[in-house]
């Protein structure tokens, strides 16, 4: 094997290992519960923004448990819900047994679909977690037909979940070379650069998801520490060190308090996200 072939094989193995770690991370905890109890409404926001109609071919990339895919299917669309993590697809299939769609394991950076195969390609807080943003953006465009629509919902760096990742950053190993931070998908300039001149009518809306699930910052921390894969990974990375665990406990609870507001009606948070829609040229 030549040096070039050896280097290529090594890079392919590293990418395979990275994707395997990502899949394990999202399979840890209970992301279906996070979706069900906190973020599922975002799927409806995305499908409404894309105005999905009966008979359209729709691909949901990094679909998770299918909060967006299910809404599209209920409009009569022909839907494929794809995700890197089989356990999430299994949970989605179990949660939505009466909804007709395909549930397929697929890598957002290397989708197993033909060029221009779909009328609508979308992702709801999913594709943003693919480590190589340009590769993922290229696949979104490639699989959508000319004149078709792309739609995304992504957490912003300035919002609660963006701040969550910033708070966890000192507690986790640095990302591998070439990987980009997920919340960059929540910035207009980054998305514009990823798509370039391959789309038109590119529209951005910064919106907030009202969250009343938690009583205070400590409950916000505890919920994420128990159920959200990236937060579970951050705790695991402390190796059981009591001082480090106490530090991340303190920082995440403080974040929750800063991001919420105590009123007579309870504790309310507003999680900012970026809604993106575009038409493929």
From TrEMBL:
- The Methyltransferase type domain, residue ranges: 59-150
The protein in question is named Methyltransferase type 11 domain-containing protein
Output the CDD domains linked to this UniProt entry. AdoMet_MTases (cd02440)
Q: Which domain of life is it from?
A: Bacteria
Gene Ontology molecular-function annotations: S-adenosylmethionine-dependent methyltransferase activity
């Amino acid at each position: 094997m030549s040096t070039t072939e050896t280097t290529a094989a090594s890079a392919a193995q590293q990418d395979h290992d990275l994707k395997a770690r990502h899949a394990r991370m999202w399979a840890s905890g209970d992301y279906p519960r996070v979706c069900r109890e906190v973020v599922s409404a975002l799927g409806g926001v995305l499908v409404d923004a894309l105005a999905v109609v009966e008979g359209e071919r729709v691909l949901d990339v990094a679909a998770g448990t299918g909060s967006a895919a299910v809404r599209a299917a209920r409009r009569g669309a022909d839907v494929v819900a794809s995700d890197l993590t089989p356990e999430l697809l299994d949970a989605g299939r179990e949660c939505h047994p009466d909804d007709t769609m395909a549930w397929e394991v697929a890598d957002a950076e290397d989708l197993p679909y033909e060029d221009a195969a779909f009328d609508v390609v979308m992702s709801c807080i999913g594709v943003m977690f693919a480590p190589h943003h340009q590769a993922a953006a290229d696949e979104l465009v490639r699989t959508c037909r000319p004149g078709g629509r792309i739609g995304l919902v992504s957490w912003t760096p300035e919002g609660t979940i963006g701040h969550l990742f910033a708070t966890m950053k000192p507690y986790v190993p640095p990302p591998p070379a070439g990987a980009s931070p997920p919340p960059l998908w929540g910035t207009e300039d980054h998305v514009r650069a990823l798509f370039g001149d391959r789309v038109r009518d590119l529209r951005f809306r910064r919106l907030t998801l009202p969250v009343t699930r938690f009583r205070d910052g400590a409950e916000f921390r505890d919920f994420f520490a128990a159920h959200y894969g990236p937060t579970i990974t951050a705790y695991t990375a402390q190796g059981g060190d009591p001082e480090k665990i106490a530090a991340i406990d303190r920082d995440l609870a403080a974040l929750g308090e800063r991001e919420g507001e105590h009123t007579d009606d309870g504790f309310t948070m507003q999680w900012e996200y970026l809604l993106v829609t575009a038409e493929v040229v």
